[in-house]
Design goal:
The chain is of the alpha/beta class. The chain starts with 5 loop residues before the first strand and ends with a helix. Helix 6 runs antiparallel to helix 8. The chain has a six-stranded mixed sheet with strand order 2-3-1-4-5-6, sandwiched between helices. It has a three-stranded mixed sheet with strand order 7-8-9. Helix 4 links the parallel strand 5 and strand 6. The protein is built from ten helices and nine strands. It folds into two domains: 165 residues, 3-Layer(aba) Sandwich (Rossmann fold); 114 residues, 2-Layer Sandwich (GMP Synthetase, Chain A, domain 3). The protein binds guanosine-5'-triphosphate (GTP) and magnesium ion (MG). The site of magnesium ion has 5 residues, from helix 1.
């Protein structure tokens, strides 16, 4: 009986900044999704695969659920809807906050209308004591029924094994969707662009990072294995350009140095990274620019993952 191979699609959902991407990276044991302390870091679904002898889980990381104020925000929320519609199970992440707010109630209402198992993950358990966790569990349990409730610390990866165990317990017998070596099918070029955006999110403050997009103009492997990468950091206002470049180019250099290190780790080879900064005025509300950056609502309707 316990030899059957189980599989299915599992989305990580919740409000911005609760730790969805951090948890997904720990679940698969590799850093694929970018993370930062700024809300709305993840902008699109990111699919990754975990396989062991118990079965295969295809994780779908999603943007944090919020009320959209830009065209980009609308795309992001469409992408969450698409994920919820197309998976077998949900991991709903929350922070150990005693106050269950209206947006959490809205999420719970929506989830309880679906016929999907929902595992409630109370993340950032390291920030509070055990008694508080008990109260949080009680408050959230009043909202809906869960297949399981698991408090954990995604940052350190503690409690992650219990999540995998529970998912395998709940998934039905199923096929192997991807070969066992696959961790993600996201092209290396896209991951490199996301790494650069992560460093910009982490180095910059205020509203500047939210208007950043990254275009990889060139990514070519030399004969000696070294990668040449040329990328443009796009910002949405002329006044942001100087901030991204920094005094004497220091900010751009800092972002570039940090990004290069991570891209080297990703490619397993030396990387020569060149960065430029361009302004595309208010691109987050410009349908043509949004499409150029891959945030095309039609793509969601076509069911393209
Ligand atoms: N203390 C603590 N911080 C955590 C934990 N998990 C994640 N974080 C931090 O929370 C912040 C947000 O993490 P992300 O993984 O980017 O959150 P997210 O839910 O993917 O955010 P969006 O993509 O913006 O929706 C980062 O600064 C993480 O380091 C945790 O268990 N404990
Ligand atoms: Mg995220």
């Amino acid at each position: 009986m316990d030899k059957e191979f189980r599989s299915g699609f599992v989305a990580l959902i919740g409000r911005p900044n609760v730790g969805k991407s951090t948890l997904m990276n720990h679940l698969i044991g590799q850093k694929i999704a970018i993370t930062s302390n700024k809300p709305q870091t993840t902008r699109d679904r990111i699919q990754t695969v975990y396989t062991d002898k118990r079965g295969q889980i295809v994780f779908v990381d999603t943007p944090g659920m919020h009320k959209a104020h830009t065209g980009l925000g609308e795309y992001m929320m469409g992408s969450v809807d698409k994920a919820i519609e197309s998976v077998d199970m949900l991991l709903w992440l929350v922070e150990p906050d005693l106050h269950v707010g209206p947006s959490d109630r809205e999420i719970a209402e929506r989830l309880s209308s679906l016929k999907l198992p929902v595992i409630l993950i109370i993340n950032k358990a390291d920030m509070v004591d055990k008694a508080r966790i008990g109260e949080v569990v009680k408050n959230y349990s009043e909202l809906m029924e869960y297949a399981a409730v698991i408090p954990l610390c995604a940052l350190r990866g503690t409690g992650v094994d219990r999540v995998l165990e529970k998912i395998f317990e709940l998934l039905p017998e199923g096929p192997m969707y991807y070969d066992e070596e696959t961790v993600t099918q996201q092209p290396i070029r896209e991951i490199a662009g996301e790494i650069i955006r992560e460093k910009a999110l982490r180095c910059l403050s205020d509203e500047v990072p939210h208007g950043i997009a990254v275009e990889i103009e060139k990514m070519r492997e030399r004969e000696d294995g070294m990668f040449d990468v040329e990328a443009v950091l796009v910002c949405e206002k002329e006044s942001h350009k100087g901030i991204v470049i920094g005094k004497g180019g220091q900010m751009l250099k800092k972002i570039g140095t940090q990004a290069r290190r991570d891209i080297e780790e990703l490619t397993g080879t030396r990387v020569n990274l060149k960065l430029w900064v361009k302004v595309r005025k208010d691109w987050r509300d410009d349908p043509v620019q949004l499409k150029n950056f891959g945030f095309d609502k039609r793509k969601l309707n076509e069911g393209n993952s």
